Predict the structure.
Amino acid sequence: MLASHPRPSRLARLALTGTALAALLWPGLAMAADHYAKAQALLAAGDLRGAQIELRNAVRDDPENGRAHLGLADVDLRLGDPAAAEKEAGKARDLGTEPRRATEILLQSYLDQQRPRDLLQTFPATGNPPDLAPTILAARARAELMLDQVDKAAADIDAAKAIAPDSPEVLLTASQVASAKGDPKAAEAAIAAVLKADPENAAALRRKAQFAANAGDRAGAITILDGVIAHDPNDIVAHLQRADLLIASRQNDKAKEDIAVVQKMLPNNAQAVYLHALILAEAGDFKGAGADMEKLSSVLSRMPNAYYIDALVKNQLGEREQALDSARRYVARFPNDPRGVALLVQIDMARHAPDDAIAALNKAILLNDKNPALHELLGQVYLASGKLAPAIASYETASALAPDNAALLSRLGELKLDAGDNDGAAAAFERSLTLDPKQAKAGEMLVLTGIVAGDFSQAESHLAELKKQEGDSAVVGNLTGLLKLAEMDYPAAEAAFAAVIKAHPDAIAAKLSLARLQLLEGQNDDAWKLLDEVLAKQPGNRTALNIAVAAREQQGDTKAALALLAQAHAAVPNDAAIAASYAGLLLRTNDAKGALAVTLGKDQPAAAALLMVQAAAQASLGLNDTARDTYRQILTLDPSQTTARINLVRLLVQAKDYSGADAVIDAGLKAYPANYELMQAALGVALASGGADAALARAASLAKDAAHLPAARALPGDFYMSQKNYDAAAKAYAAAAADQPSTMLVLREAAAENAGGHKKAAMATLSDWVGSHADDVSALVALADFEIADHQYPVAAGHLETVLGHQPNNIIALNNLAWIDQQLGKPEALKLAERAYLLAPGAQTADTLGYILTQAKNPTGLPLLRQAHAELPNDPAIQYHLATALAAAGHRDEAVALLTSITGDKVNFPEKDGARQLLADLNAGK
C-alpha cells in the first residue's frame, strides 16, 4: 500500500506555482542563477578560468544580471584581460550594481591597459560622489605617476587623504607617491598604517616586501611573500613577485614553482612568461627564451622592463635589428639603468656601429656623469674603434670617479703603455699596487713596462718586488726569462724558462716562450717537443697551434702543418676558428674538396670565418651558385662582413648580374656609408658593366653624398691608379685636395706621382704639405721614406725625430731612424732598434735589430734574422742580412744558398752589390 503524502499548504502551492511559472516564462534566469552559483564555487576553489566560463554563460543567459557582469569584470581583471574587464565593469555600473566596486575595476582596467590619459579625462578630480571621490583621486594619482607628473599625483593623493585618511587604497597610493618624491620614510609609514589596521592586507604586505628588496634584503622580502601566499595560495601577484626575487637570488628552481602556479591559473600571463624567459636566458637557452618572448610581442609596449630581456635574447640569436629596437626602447624608458646602456652598446658594436655606441654612451653620461662604469665602457668602445687617446681620457675619468678601483688603474696603465707613455703607465700600475698589493697583474705589468721602455734596471727592480710577493712562481720565472730575452741574453733566457718548466711542469706560458726562443735559435726539434707537449694536453690551445703551424709552414713542411691542424680539429671539432684554419690551409694547398668537407662537418657552427672558407672552396670548385648562397648566409649572420660582400659582388659580376651586384653594394653602403672598400667595389661593377666613363660617373655620384665623405673624394684618383694612368690619378687627387685638403689625398697624390716616375714631384708635394702641417705624422713618415730612398739620411732623421716627439712609440719611425743611424754609424742605432723590436717584434724590426747586431759582431743577431726570414721568406734584403749573419757564424753552405737565390738577374734590391761581393768572398774562401 502506498503511503499518503501530506498536501502542501496554499502558501506553499502559490510559491511553487510562482517559481514554476518564472522558470517557464524566463528560463534564462534560472540558468543564469545556476551558472553564477557554479562560478562562486569555482572561485572559492581557486579555478579562475572555470569561474570565467560560468560567469560568461551567466551574462549570456541574463544580460541584465549586474552581479554576474561585476563578477566577470573582477575575474577578467585578475586573469590579465583588462579590456574585457573594462567592458563588464561598465555594464555593471550602468545597471547600478555596486557602483563603488564597479568604478574600482574600471579605474584599474584603465591603468592595466596603460591608458593613464584616458583615465584622467574620463574621471575628473572634482564632482564625484563622496563615497567614490577617494577611489577616483587615488587612481588619478597612480595615472599621473605613470606620466611622471609627480606634483599632480601628490596634489590628488593629498585631496584623497583629506576625505579618507584611513583608506587602505588611499594609503597604498600615498606610499607610491612618496617613493616617487624620494621620501622612503613616508612611503613606509603609509604602509605601516595600513598594516596596523589590517595586518593581513595583501597589497600592503606585497609593498612591504618590495621595500625590503629595495633595501637589499631579498631574503626578508621572500619571507613576507611566503606569508602572503600561505594566507592566499591563489595570490598571483605575490607568486610573481616572489618568483622575481627568487631569480635575483639565483634560486631559479624555486622560482619555477611560483611561475608554474601562475601559469596553471593563467597560462598566458605576460609576467609569468617573461620570468620564464629570464630563467631560460640565464641558463643559456636563448632559443627557448626567444620563443617565450615571441608570445609577448603584442604586449611588450605595456611591459617596458621586458624590452631588456627581449634585446638580450634577440642579440644572442643574431636578430640584431630587432635586438637594437628593443634595446633602444628600454634605454629610452630607463635611461639611468647602466645594464640597458651596456646592452645597447654591445649590440651597436656587434653591428660594427661604434659611432652609434659612442653617441648612446655620451647621452647616458650626460644624465649620470658620475658613473665610473659608463666612462669605462666608453673607453672600451673607443679602444675597439682604434681611438686610443679618447679611450685613455675615458679611463682616466673613470679612475678619478673610482679612485679605489685597483683593476681600473691597472687597465689604465696598460693603455698608457700602448700609447708610449711609459712613465704614466708605471705611475698607474704603482697606484694600483698601493691599493691592492696582492694583485699580481699590476706587478707583472710594471715589469713589462720596464722591458718595453728599455729600462732593464727598473724591470729587474719590479721583478724583485714581485718575487717577494709570489716567490718562485711560474709568472715570476716567465718574466725573468722575458727580461733576459729583451737583454738579448739568450742562454740566460733559455735557462730561466727551463727552470720554470722544471718547477712547474704545467706552466704553459713558459713552455710557449721557450719554444719561440728555440725556434729563433734554430733548435727546431726541441721546440717541436715542447709544442707537442702543450697540444697533447690542450689540443685546442690556439697560441701553441698557431706557433707550431706557422713554423712548419715557414720551413716548407706543409704536410706536418696540416697534420697538426687535423689533430686539433679532431680533438675539438666545434672550435670554428681551428676548423677555419684547417680548411683554409687545405684550400691554400689546392685541396678545395678537403676544405669544403671540413666546413660542412656536422658539428660545425655557423661562424662567419668558417663560412668564408666554405664559400671560397665552393667557388674554387666552380660551384658559384652555392658559393653565392654561402656569402649571402654570411651577410645574414653579420652584415658588416665586407670581404664576403665584395666576394659575392665578384661572383655576380662574373655571372654578368650587374644589377644584383649593385644591389649588394648599395645594401652595404646604406648600412655602412663610410666603407671605402665598398665604394671601390661599386666602381669595379660600373667599369665591368659600362666601361671607364660609367666608373667615373659612379665615383662622382658617390662623392655627391655627404655620407660617403671625405673618403669618396679619392675615388676618381683611385680609379685612374687601377688603370695605371698615374698622371691622371695625380691630377685627380690634386683637384680633390684643392677642394678639400686632407692627409689622405696628399699621400695618394705623392704615391701617384712616384708611380708615374716623378719622385721629385712626389717629394715636393709632401714637403709642401709638411711645411704647413708640421705635426702630420703620416706625411712626415712618408716623406722620410722618400728621403731614405734618396740617401738624404740627415734630413729623413730630422723628420723621424719630429714624429717621435709626437708619438714616442711610433714603430715605423723608431725602426727607420735606427736604420739611418746605423748607416751613419751612430751608436744610438742599437737602442732605437731594440726599442722598436720590443714594442713590435715583427719581421721588419727583427731584421733591423738583427742586422745591427750582426754588423757589431754580436751573434745574437742571427736568431732575430732567422725570425725575420721566417716571416718574410721572399724578401731579398732580409735574405742578404741573414746570409751575412750565417757567414759570420760559420754556416757557409746555408749562406751561399741564400745569396745564390738573390744575386741573379731577375732579383733587384738596393744592397744587391753587397750580396754579390759577399757571395764572391765566400766562394773564394775568404
